[in-house]
Design brief:
7-stranded parallel beta sheet, 8-stranded mixed beta sheet, 17 helices, alpha/beta, Rossmann fold, globular
Amino acid sequence: MNTVNNPKSMGVLWVQYGPYHSARFMALKKHAGSAKVHALEFSNQTSVYAWNRSELPKDLITLCPGAVAEELPFLQVFRQARRAFAALKLDVCFLPSYSPSQSLAALLAAKSLGIRTVMMNESHAGTSKAKGLAATVKRRLVGLFDTALVGGRPQKRYIASLGLPEKKILTGYDAVDNDYFAKKSAEVRNQEKEIRAKYRLPEHYFLSLGRFVAKKNLPTLIKSFRKLLDTRPDCQTHLVLVGSGENETALRSLCHDLRLPVYDKTSAGIETEPTNAESENETPGVHFYGFRQVAENPVFYALADAFVLPSLYEEWGLVVNEAMACGLPVVVSETAGCAEDLLPPHRLVAPHGISADLRARLVQLNGCIRQNGFLFNPRSVQALANALIVLEASPEIREKMAQAGRQVIDRFSCENFAANALLAANAAFEKPAPSS
């Protein structure tokens, strides 16, 4: 790309800064050279997330402190954003898409000052709901951006379908601090006995981590786990759910209906005197650990046998990044935004010596097997159960998938985010082709 200018002052605006945003921002700032990079957020409060915000970028600018981000009036955001952008003398600003109204207000504030804009977006065809006039309006809004930084290939195809030229769309938006998760999970494994006892974690378990809301599709996971236990009566693998949300009561009720033991572990890890006596005698069941901060997640990843993301739809699914960075095989809904990029179509080479039954199941899973895990139809209980059965029965397959996953996730780092963010920022200054 032929650029006519390099930005000297860049802003990175998110709804609210949490651990994911801070890690990406710091990587961008590190790689930005002499350019100044400024962190901005709509508010320091949000109705969705309860992140620990102890490690935030220095000089973070909160446009509307004290208000709930999702409830901020359009005009207030427009005025505050315009004032901040002008004071910082921004050349380019990274913005959290064009929706909801707060994002649109920030976009229009930037445009009113002649600031180049980069759209940060995770949407893909599977999450798009706009039809008719709404779709036309969306195309117009996308056209207001100079460039875009999106998750991966499905997201790039979708934004290109809305009219933004492909050469103006960079990927790599969805990244976590891989080194942090790899390091922390290694530390946990080095203290496995003590930490497993402290958190009362079973010896073997599959893990799912996220909000307990409808789109996460946890009932399908619980039903698939029941099928695993029915298929393999001697199975000693449990299901661990980390998170909270409006569907928790219904999920616990479903476990009871399916004759699955329910273990309330919401206080585990808090007790001063760890004990593993209870966990050693537990019948395989479902463990509810409640909401945990991102910094605590490596505890659960490090000691799990595999990670499962069963969502009906997902813009991306950063928990899959985390799990792979921690060295886990992953079982991911084929409708998740990360599925195509994080589980590339390279087949697993099955280890020698596995049983005939396992080989037969792998044949049944043909087309769903990847070198680092499995894809599955999120509306099929049996499809997910088949993947769980194979993983539960074969430590060798789990290890091969874990090793492959570490190599895949290296390409989705915060450093990759920073490099492509800078390309997107520079591309925002590319002269349009002269009209014929």
